[in-house]
Write a structure and sequence with these properties.
Layout (H helix, E strand, L loop, with lengths): L54 H28 L6 H64 L3 H16 L3 E6 L3 E6 L12 E6 L5 E6 L5 H40 L3 H16 L3 E7 L5 E8 L2 E3 L7 H8 L4 E3 L2 H6 L5 E9 L2 E10 L10 H61 L4 H29 L4 H4 L1 H16 L2 E8 L5 H22 L3 E8 L2 E8 L6 H4 L11 H10 L3 E6 L5 E8 L2
Length: about 600
């Protein structure tokens, strides 16, 4: 059959015979017929030593040389015999043809048989080499499969199970048990009826680098080759376990950074948490963040080293500017490292960039000259991307806070100017009139004083209503339902109204939707206190397929068509703005009112 070259075998723990890896491996499927001459297998049988004839050469010699040689010898012998006396010819023929002929034939055949035996020895050795080669190939395939399965394992438990099964498959053990630090273990059994190792089996225990052990049990005593193979498997298992640990640690680190982004809005605390997580991941001693200001200049926002936190506001050093212009992380160990951190001899800089452009530069420093040569820069770059998103979100939150504060200041100024300030000015005029009439017309003066007192008391109540409307509400602390209960109760007490609350069903809203629902409640009650002149207000919050909020009063009412676009002086939102807020989150908003018949405000929001 045609020769099929065997795949190359690596040197290593599988103990593949070095003389079998080569052309001698050809034809392994047909072990009865040698595919190549014995000398090409790398092993020379005794008959094929240098200077000796191979079997084919011996056959050629006997076939080509012996017949003419026999003719010549017979001719020469017959000539010599013819010269003998007549009585001796018979004995000469008997001696030659009876002894010399058979002897020549015997030694010729024996010479050929020796070559045949040498060929058979070569065949047997080839068969043995082929068997070893096939066993080595099977072990190699099993090891490769084990390495692939270890790479694909999702968690530590999967690694232990895969490693135990692979150890049984590769070594031929009846049982395998793998343990690692932390109390985790995995076990497997091969082709055996025993559910657990017995005393009749032969144990082999191999330590795993980094901690743990691989325990194997065999039907027969393990050979030195098997022990070497088990040690190689233990090394592969150690690498698989370490890879899973690294992946787990990476996920935990990313989760920690993600939690920092979600839970913190203060910029300084946010950068402190993120950079501390990154520094702990690579063992860095110092960390800093430079952010671009409104003019695009990089300035120090947060920094900390072994001496503690560093004051921000400074201009970025040259290395930070180079990192800002780079496409990826940079590492410096020159004098630039000392310009970033005084005690640092190595600094890793990562640009913080998104689709909108450069946000800043993140720096990690250490006193070791090559601290970041082996750092997982790809993971740090991913964490830097999360930090970039966090900075964008924090800046957006700060901007929204500033905008809300500006709007609230404008609202308070408008409210004071349109209400309290004018009323107080009117009260001051009345008191001036009283001062002129107190002697000439005491009765008139007393009436004016009473009117001014009533006006002042009304303005005191108005100021209290404004203060109540400005009071911060902690939805995250108490939740929507408890916050609504507290607010409705306080509202009735502050404004002298009968305020009732009815909550029914299950209410499950996202944090953003909860804020919108509470804002609608707050604005509606403020409008009741400011404009309705009501005696009673009823608040209903019902959770069904949708969450429905109703605020109904028995006050004077109004015409919605005439006030829809106005801005409420109490809450800062008009009816149109409240409708837009609700509808932007997939809800419905409506106001039913008419002069003299009270007002009903209704808002519906989808459940989370």
């Amino acid at each position: 059959m045609p020769d099929a070259p065997a795949p190359p075998l690596p040197d290593g723990p599988l103990n593949t015979p070095r003389h079998a890896a080569g052309p001698a491996a050809a034809g392994a499927d047909d072990l009865s017929v040698p595919a190549l001459p014995a000398e090409e297998s790398g092993t020379l049988p005794p008959a094929d030593l240098p200077g000796a004839f191979r079997l084919s050469d011996r056959v050629k010699v006997v076939r080509n040389v012996l017949p003419p040689l026999i003719v010549l010898v017979v001719g020469a012998v017959e000539f010599l015999i013819s010269l003998l006396p007549g009585g001796q010819e018979l004995w000469a023929h008997l001696l030659f043809y009876g002894l010399v002929g058979p002897a020549v034939t015997y030694f010729s055949v024996e010479w050929i048989a020796e070559g045949t035996r040498a060929r058979e020895r070569a065949e047997r050795e080839l068969r043995d080499l082929y068997g070893q080669l096939r066993a080595s190939h099977a072990q190699l395939g099993a090891v490769q499969a084990l390495m692939r399965d270890l790479t694909d394992a999702a968690d530590m438990g999967a690694v232990l199970d895969v490693a135990a099964r692979g150890a049984v498959r590769v070594t031929g053990a009846t049982h395998a048990t793998l343990t690692v630090p932390g109390g985790l273990s995995g076990s497997a059994r091969g082709e055996t009826l025993l559910s657990a190792p017995s005393a009749a089996l032969f144990p082999l225990r191999v330590s795993i680098p980094g901690g743990g052990a691989l325990a194997l049990h065999f039907d027969s005593p393990p050979t030195p080759d098997t022990e070497s193979l088990a040690q190689a498997l233990a090394a592969e298992v150690a690498r698989g376990v370490e890879a899973v640990r690294q992946r787990t640690l990476d996920l935990m680190t990313l989760y920690s950074v993600d939690q920092s982004i979600r839970a913190e809005r203060n910029m300084r605390r946010l950068l402190s948490r993120i950079t501390r997580t990154m520094a702990d991941r690579v063992g860095a001693e110092a960390r800093a963040v430079f952010l671009t200001d409104q003019d695009g200049v990089l300035r120090l926002e947060y920094a900390q080293d072994r001496q503690g936190e560093v004051r921000g506001g400074g201009i970025a050093p040259p290395f930070a500017l180079r990192v800002a212009q780079a496409d990826g992380p940079l590492i410096t160990t020159a004098d630039d490292a000392g310009e970033v951190f005084p005690d640092a001899r190595s600094v890793l800089g990562i640009p913080m960039r998104d689709d909108e452009g450069l946000v800043g530069v993140l720096m990690l420093g250490d006193a070791r000259p090559s601290a970041f040569d082996d750092a997982r820069v790809s993971l740090l770059a991913l964490m830097s991307g999360q930090a970039t998103l966090a900075v964008r979100n924090a800046r957006a939150y700060l901007y929204s806070e500033e905008l809300a504060i500006s709007d609230e200041r404008a609202r308070i100024a408008r409210e004071i100017h349109d209400g309290v300030a004018q009323s107080l000015a009117f009260a001051a005029l009345k008191l001036d009139v009283v001062a002129r009439q107190v002697h000439s017309d005491p009765a008139r003066a007393e009436h004016e004083v009473r009117a001014a007192t009533t006006l002042l008391r009304e303005q005191i109540r108005e100021v209290r209503r404004s203060i109540f409307a400005l009071r911060p509400i902690d939805l995250e602390r108490y939740g929507l339902l408890e916050t609504v209960r507290r607010y409705v109760l306080d509202f009735g007490e502050q404004n002298g109204l009968r305020a009732t609350l009815d909550i029914s069903g299950d209410v499950h809203l996202s944090p953003g939707d909860e804020a919108v629902v509470f804002r609608i409640l707050q604005e509606s009650l403020n409008n009741v206190a400011k404009h309705a002149r009501a005696q009673e207000v009823r608040v209903t919050l019902h959770g069904g397929s949708r969450v429905t909020l109703r605020v109904q009063d028995d006050g004077a009412g109004f015409d919605p068509e005439q006030v829809t676009g106005r801005v409420s002086s109490a809450g800062g939102l008009g009816l149109l703005q409240m409708r837009e807020r609700v509808e932007a989150r997939g809800g419905l908003y409506r106001v039913l009112s008419s002069p003299g018949h009270g007002t009903l405000v209704e808002a519906e929001m989808p459940q989370a």
